[in-house]
Amino acid sequence: MKGQVAVLGGTGFVGHAVCEHLVERSGGAGGRIVVPTRRLRHGLAIQPLPTVQLVQANVHDDRDLARVLAGCDAVVHLVAILHGSEAEFDRVHVQLPRRVAAACKAAGVRRVVHVSALGVAPDAPSRYLRSKAAGEQVWRDSGLDVTVLRPSVIFGARDRFLNLFAQLQTLAPFVPLGGAHARFQPVWVEDVAEAVVRCLDQPATIGQIVECAGPQPYTLAELVQLAGRLSGHPRPVLPLPGALARLQALVMEWLPGEPLMSRDNVDSMKVPNVATAGEPGLAALGITASAVEGVAAGYLGGIDGPGRFMPWRSRHR
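^ thats the sequence. predicted structure below, dont judge the formating
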């Protein structure tokens, strides 16, 4: 598909990579990539990309959505939150897909790639996973040509996952860690972005769920230790039992800024965040998943003090 694509959530961590891959796919001379944002300054990093058009718009406003989708041939839906109340998760993960689906029908847009998450289920233990499952159901019921991607935890040079754990270990003598034994299968942001583009270009993926995971599973403790080792500041990890993990998360929720971990995150980690045997994955799209060690060594190796890291980027393609 070479037409105009709207990337909702295009100014975020994953969205930035998706926009870059869409530009590369077209050689910078393809259809427009429309990226709505409430504040144009949030899109400064992608604004120089050829064919990217930033549009000041609120995706929760039906009139703005109609304006954004006018003339589009496809939508990539990336908007999500990691923390919030039941109502906030419902607004972003359920009501917004419902709004976008209605706007797509009104604008004549049939093709959608929706990025969800591994572990979603209506009876999942966390608000995040339950609301993501409800959002997927909205798309299944929409009658549109939808492909759903379910990634594990996503890492990359701009991530707020490995970078934060590495930075934490420049300060702390040890890391008290809730959910230390939770299992993840980290996937590189560039592989997820490439998966989005290939799904858009492969009509056979319509109606499919594709799991995006790296080549190897890890416990959260192993990932924290990896971040410390690659950044040159390895610290002992102290696993916390369930009650203390929830207390730690509660304290983090009350700290200024976006919390590193919330009680809902602790609940999410009760479900293994790893690929399901026999389900379509990156390989089904012709993508060889990149190992976290090789990629993360390039950007975590530049951390040399609190909150400081050396930007790094390579596609290995």
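The chain has a mean pLDDT of 92.
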